[in-house]
Design goal:
It is a single chain. By secondary structure, this protein is of the alpha+beta class. It has a four-stranded antiparallel β-sheet, with no helix packed on it. A three-stranded antiparallel β-sheet has the order 1-10-9, with no helix packed on it. Strands 2-3-4 form a three-stranded antiparallel β-sheet, with no helix packed on it. The relative contact order is 0.13.
Length: 217
């Protein structure tokens, strides 16, 4: 291979000193290099997220269902007595079986200020006593305003002459109609031979704080 002859112009150019990079060009080149690095970093794929961020709060455990309450087993029914059933009532003879030939007989219980009606319904009724379980007794005062009641043996109905409340004597003296809101108090009876005794009261006699007196004990 032959050597190429170097011309005087090329030799002069080789001996000429290379220009130095000035400050403005250096700064411009640095800016371009920095921007290229930022673009390269943005173009890179982000790292895969972890399952739980390092700064995340600890997760609370899932709530568990409350245990089912144990079933309540009722072995027997307990009846709570009325206050009128636990007071010390006297045992008083109020009539005889012969007194009921007309179907009704008036007396008083538990004292002379409390009129009652003793009835022979003529058929078995709830709470009835006597040979045919058809004898019952009720307070003679209306539960509305205490008016004395009248009784019709033909219809077995108590009627209040003051405000016309009606009560069914054959059905526990339940209220039929009228301004009264409660049925008539029942007088508890016992039969010994031909004698009928009153031994207690179910329900509150009108106008009394308790059935044994018009005033507090």
């Amino acid at each position: 291979m032959e050597d190429r002859e170097i011309s005087p112009s090329e030799e002069e150019a080789a001996r000429r000193p290379k220009p130095r990079l000035d400050r403005r060009s250096f700064l411009k080149l640095s800016s371009i290099s920095g921007a290229a690095a930022v673009l390269a970093a943005c173009a890179a794929q982000p790292p895969a997220p972890t399952a739980v961020p390092p700064t995340a709060a600890p997760q609370a455990p899932a709530p568990t269902a409350a245990p089912a309450p144990s079933p309540v087993v009722v072995t027997e029914t307990v009846e709570v007595p009325l206050i009128s059933e636990v007071l010390p009532y006297p045992r008083i003879k109020v009539a005889t079986l012969n007194d009921l030939q007309s179907g009704a007989f008036g007396a008083s219980y538990p004292d002379q200020f409390s009129p009652i009606q003793i009835l022979k319904i003529g058929k078995k009724v709830p709470g009835g006593v006597g040979p045919d379980e058809d004898i019952v007794a009720y307070s003679g005062l209306c539960t509305h305003m205490g008016c004395p009641m009248t009784y019709d043996p033909a219809t077995k109905i108590f009627v209040c002459p003051c405000h016309y409340s009606h009560f069914d004597a054959a059905a526990d003296a339940m209220l039929i109609n009228g301004p009264a809101t409660q049925h008539l108090p029942r007088i508890m009876l016992e039969v010994e031979g031909q004698d009928i005794y009153a031994v207690g009261v179910q329900g509150l006699i009108y106008g009394r704080p308790h059935n044994l007196s018009l005033t507090e004990l």
